[in-house]
Amino acid sequence: xxxxxxxxxxxxxxxxxxxxxxxxxxxxxxxxxxxxxxxxxxxxxxxxxxxxxxxxxxxxxxxxxxxxxxxxxxxxxxxxxxxx
Amino acid sequence: xxxxxxxxxxxxxxxxxxxxxxxxxxxxxxxxxxxxxxxxxxxxxxxxxxxxxxxxxxxxxxxxxxxxxxxxxxxxxxxxxxxxxxxxxxxxxxxxxxxxxxxxxxxxxxxxxxxxxxxxxxxxxxxxxxxxxxxxxxxxxxxxxxxxxxxxxxxxxxxxxxxxxxxxxxxxxxxxxxxxxxxxxxxxxxxxxxxxxxxxxxxxxxxxxxxxxxxxxxxxxxxxxxxxxxxxxxxxxxxxxxxxxxxxxxxxxxxxxxxxxxxxxxxxxxxxxxxxxxxxxxxxxxxxxxxxxxxxxxxxxxxxxxxxxxxxxxxxxxxxxxxxxxxxxxxxxxxxxxxxxxxxxxxxxxxxxxxxxxxxxxxxxxxxxxxxxxxxxxxxxxxxxxxxxxxxxxxxxxxxxxxxxxxxxxxxxxxxxxxxxxxxxxxxxxxxxxxxxxxxxxxxxxxxxxxxxxxxxxxxxxxxxxxxxxxxxxxxxxxxxxxxxxxxxxxxxxxxxxxxxxxxxxxxxxxxxxxxxxxxxxxxxxxxxxxxxxxxxxxxxxxxxxxxxxxxxxxxxx
Lengths: 84, 558
Prior knowledge:
The complex is a heterodimer of chains A (84) and B (558).
Chain A: H1 3-34, H2 36-39, E1 43-44, E2 47-48, H3 49-83
Antiparallel strand pairs in A: 1-2
Helix pairs in contact in A: 1-3
Chain B: H1 3-24, H2 30-35, H3 42-53, H4 56-69, H5 74-98, H6 103-110, H7 114-146, H8 151-201, H9 206-209, H10 220-230, H11 243-259, H12 261-264, H13 273-309, H14 319-327, E1 330-332, E2 352-354, H15 358-366, H16 371-409, H17 415-438, H18 444-468, H19 474-497, H20 517-535, H21 541-551
Helix pairs in contact in B: 1-8, 1-16, 3-8, 3-13, 3-16, 4-13, 4-15, 4-16, 5-11, 5-13, 6-7, 7-8, 7-16, 7-17, 7-18, 7-19, 8-13, 8-16, 8-17, 10-13, 11-18, 11-20, 13-15, 16-17, 18-19, 18-20, 19-20
């Protein structure tokens, strides 16, 4: 891969990281900890929403985030390696 | 069939399986010994990582811990899963691209310095030893409860098994036994959970069950909140810790997870960079199955327990009560001599003390499940403890034979000599772990939780900046690691063992507990590294090129 392409590739990667890590932070530290009192006013079935995010929801989102990243990077790898 | 026979049968079958795999996957080279020849498929590696990761603590203690802590227990749930996002996004692919055997390998090469390598070896050894002692103890506990042998005999049996497959098979043997151990442990964890969820809520999926209504038409969580309030405990779904502390503990556990050497090294065992990402995804998926079930078990067990014992006559207690009283993990003192069990938050009146570790283990008995389920649980707990112990022992042995002997003391050692050194150090590591299992230093439990703080404060910043910040040099990284490590050790020994004048909760800096302090020490590590790095000269061209190379995966053309 040429220097320029490599730079472009890395920039794209950093953009993905920034977006995915903000979601990671929001569901766990945001919904599960900082905003818990507000979210606990909302109830879904027997769960208070904030409590659900802290003990269930955040974990589901974590798994999803990694698989989204795998998909994005596989696409990116393909795109840049066909250009070389 | 009798419970004892079931237990011997389950343990016999699973152990012969592990030994069979070990013989089949004997390691022939150092590459096979350290990283299983880098030929493990992502799904198998995901399972092995999950088994490696989920220790006796996750399997036996976590659900019990949550059932006593309620919302505050979320720090473990988020902390011990969220770290995998960091691993998959920030560390695993790049370390795999770098393509060596250990974490000190990366630190030593990226920071072109044997000092950095030594500091990393030192951190890896401290973290792994504190962790492994707890595992051997777990093995001993399970044996003594279920096989009615002495705890020490239990530890020795566990040592013999781990010794056999870790020394013989190295990473290759460990990886494939861990795959088997994952299957055993997850099955053992889920079966009782599904049974109990059915019994209590009619819903076979525990993750949904604990948000459903019980047979009396009241939401289980609402009922538990009510019961907790009535007995003077804090409400189950709200916490008692400060928000700031919950934040810091969660962060320390997440970042610590991403910095644990026995977890990171698992990503060296796959074929290519994209496989490293994939196996982090699979690992977290396999871990999430247990981690989303644990809070459900916590709620079921807590509700069941309160309803079974609270304000009930002691003489009417079921058989399990007496069984666990014998182990000393459950004690009843009739303070007001009325023959009735008062279980309340007020320690003046409370008559029942329950060790949190029995919540998962006694669960099938409390719910009156068949004997084979109890036997399965014993086999699962052993699988969890053994798989983690083996992974840690490998880190210890490769730190000694590869990072110390091969890289620093005697670089001209032959491949065969290094392999012998690896096996000998694995052997001694098992003996030492066994020694600590039999004579546990009183601080093991406290220190295991803090191993995460140490990993966060030392490794994580050095590795992340090594990849994402080309300008970072050895002066910055080494001073950062040392400051982070020392600061964490200082805070931990001050507040946990009373060194340096000791102190109480009131003296905590900014109200941060020792468990959460790793986050703080990590921030200091980052700051020190950055300042020192800009006062000293930047790393050489070659190093900067090395970093560029790590960032871009190579794809073999077909």
